[in-house]
Amino acid sequence: MKARIIVTLKTGVLDPQGKAIESALKSFGIDSVEGVRQGKVFDLEVNASDRASAEAALKTACEKLLANTVVENYAIEIA
Amino acid sequence: MKARIIVTLKTGVLDPQGKAIESALKSFGIDSVEGVRQGKVFDLEVNASDRASAEAALKTACEKLLANTVVENYAIEIA
């Protein structure tokens, strides 16, 4: 089944990359945008018999590799 | 209003980063995952009077800066 994992910085963690994007957008004349924070998205395919085991595998993947749980949150969406 | 932009590689565009993540996951014993493709997510706040103008500003942001439309697709979600 198809799944999407979204990894975002936790609230309060500084995001200089987001700040840089915000400045760049303003320099392009897009002033209405603020509070930009960048994260990562992973689209993947899981071979699992049921939703629960797919979710368990993806949770392990997030905890071990995809997210740094000290500073990042992750969300798993299974289609 | 809050918005989320998701930028992903178009189908057919090679994703060596995704391949590397897939190999790393397999080396951690997570074998059920395949076809990993990495993208970017931007969470931001738009100051706009209505949904349509917010969407227009974000579309400009994507076309000008956030996505390389030659090889990437973008999706705008306004909360």
Automatic annotation (TrEMBL), chains A, B:
Indicate yes or no for the key word Nucleotide-binding.
yes
The EC number on file is 6.3.5.3
What GO cellular-component annotations does this UniProt entry give? cytoplasm
Which keywords accompany this UniProt record?
ATP-binding, Cytoplasm, Ligase, Nucleotide-binding, Purine biosynthesis
Concerning Pfam families, the annotation shows: PurS
Compartment list = Cytoplasm
Q: In which pathway does it act?
A: Purine metabolism; IMP biosynthesis via de novo pathway; 5-amino-1-(5-phospho-D-ribosyl)imidazole from N(2)-formyl-N(1)-(5-phospho-D-ribosyl)glycinamide: step 1/2
List, in alphabetical order, the Gene Ontology terms for molecular function in this entry: ATP binding; phosphoribosylformylglycinamidine synthase activity
**Domain of life, source organism:** Bacteria
Entry-linked InterPro entries: PurS (IPR003850), PurS-like_sf (IPR036604)
For whether the record's keyword set contains ATP-binding, the answer is: yes
Principal cellular location given in the protein's record: cytoplasm
For biological process, the GO terms are: 'de novo' IMP biosynthetic process
Catalytic reactions on record: N(2)-formyl-N(1)-(5-phospho-beta-D-ribosyl)glycinamide + L-glutamine + ATP + H2O = 2-formamido-N(1)-(5-O-phospho-beta-D-ribosyl)acetamidine + L-glutamate + ADP + phosphate + H(+)
Gene3D superfamilies, from UniProt? Answer: Phosphoribosylformylglycinamidine synthase subunit PurS
Q: Which family does it belong to?
A: Belongs to the PurS family.
Oligomeric state and interaction partners are given as:
Part of the FGAM synthase complex composed of 1 PurL, 1 PurQ and 2 PurS subunits.
Q: What does this protein do?
A: Part of the phosphoribosylformylglycinamidine synthase complex involved in the purines biosynthetic pathway. Catalyzes the ATP-dependent conversion of formylglycinamide ribonucleotide (FGAR) and glutamine to yield formylglycinamidine ribonucleotide (FGAM) and glutamate. The FGAM synthase complex is composed of three subunits. PurQ produces an ammonia molecule by converting glutamine to glutamate. PurL transfers the ammonia molecule to FGAR to form FGAM in an ATP-dependent manner.
Protein name, please? Phosphoribosylformylglycinamidine synthase subunit PurS
Which species is listed as the source?
Methylobacterium radiodurans
